Amino acid sequence: MKKTFVIVWLVLLSTAVGALFWYNDLQYRLPTPIPESYKAVKPGEHISLNKNLYTNRSRPLFLHFFNPDCPCSRFNIKQFKAIVEQYGQQVNFAIVIMSSKHFTESEIQDKFGMNLPVIFDPSVATACGVYSTPQIALLDTDSKLYYRGNYNVSRYCTDEKTSFAKIAINGLLTQHTRLTFNKLALVSYGCRLPDCHN
After folding, report:
1. pLDDT digits over 89-147, tens only?
2. Is residue 20 a part of any domain in this protein?
3. What is the Cα–Cα distance from 120 to 169, expressed in whole angstroms?
4. Residue 162 to residue 152: CA distance in whole angstroms
5. Rounded to a whole number, what is the distance in angstroms from the first to the last CA of the chain?
6. Biggest CA pair distance of the chain
7. Tens-digit pLDDT profile for residues 62-74
8. CA 90 to chain centre
9. From CA 47, how far away is CA 41, in angstroms rounded?
10. DSSP symbols for 43-86
11. Are residues 113 and 165 in the same domain?
12. How many structural domains does the chain have?
């Protein structure tokens, strides 16, 4: 009797864990609903930001929109760090926090293990046309939007063929002005801003 109960309990537990994983994976694959007040920002539009964000005006600026409570954002930390390590000598990086909770700059820097500028201004997301996390806004040296979109088609950001962030950086660094991205790169997926709601 005990053995049967344990087996049934394990089967139910496994089913619940599988259903939860499937539900979360399904939610991730659905686009983030577009807010009613959303104003699209097109590539080439000038983005007005605090000039202190540019530590070196001769480099592009990569804005990483991050919500510490968003599972999609947390999956993305390793990928973001790898991009910073690969392009840190050519591109300026900053983390834009999108959360209604209070975090300090040092808490965020500790989470990433990197001493990058941290921005707590939600108007940066509006200026760049960002309404979910994780997202990227890549600006050229004239503060014009080059790319706003996803890191990768893969939830775990591991598919090199669709590493949109790297494709965008490489395109900007080589002055490729006719670079185009498909729907998978540009349609927002992840958590709605400012809170974590799929």
Report:
1. 999 999 999 988 899 999 999 999 999 999 999 889 999 999 989 999 999 999 999 99
2. yes
3. 24
4. 5
5. 42
6. 73
7. 999 999 988 888 8
8. 20
9. 9
10. TT-B----GGG-SSTTS-EEEEEE-TT-HHHHHHHHHHHHHHHH
11. yes
12. 2
